[in-house]
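The instructor's notes for this session suggest beginning with a concrete chain rather than abstract definitions. Hand out the sequence below and ask the class to guess, before any prediction is shown, which regions might be ordered.
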Amino acid sequence: MTTAAGAHPRFAEALHDLGLDDLHSRIRRFPDATRTAAEAAAAIGCELSQICKSLIFAADGEPVLVLMDGASRVDVELVRKELGARKVTRAAADVVRETTGYAIGGVPPFGHRTRTRVLADRSLLAHDVVWAAAGNPHAVFPMAPDALVEHASATLVDVRERTS
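After discussion, reveal the predicted structure:
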C-alpha cells in the first residue's frame, strides 16, 4: 500500500474543484484490487460497514447513484418508491462507465462525468469515517460521512434491504 496520488485523474480534478486538495495525501493505493467492499475493508483494516459503495441503478432508464454502506444491500423497491419510478434495475457496466467515467469497482461518490441524482443511505452516518473508491479499483479515500453526502449532493434516504 502507498499513501500517494492514487486517484483517477478525473477524481483528482474533482477534489481540486471541491477545495478538497488535502484529501490527496490521504488516498491509499493498494497493489491488489479493492473492487468489492469486502476486499476494500480487508485491505484498509476497517469494518465492512465503513466502506461506501457507489452503485449505479437505472430508474425508468435514467441513471441514479446510490451510496450504501458495504455491509448492506440496496432494496431496489425502496429506491423505486423514493424516486417515484415505475422500474429500477442495476445499470449495465457500459452505462456505469458512460455516466460516471469510471469502471465498476472504482466509482467514487462524486466527480462523475455527468450530473446524476444521488441517494445516500442513512446507514453511512453510523461511522465517524467511511472509505470510498477514488476512481479506480486500487485506490480509496477516507471522509466523514456527512461531508461525503454533502460533496456528492446526495439526498439522505432509507433504502437499505432489511434482513428478517
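Then share the key points. The helical segments are 9-17, 37-44, 76-83, 93-100, 145-151. The chain has five helices and nine strands.
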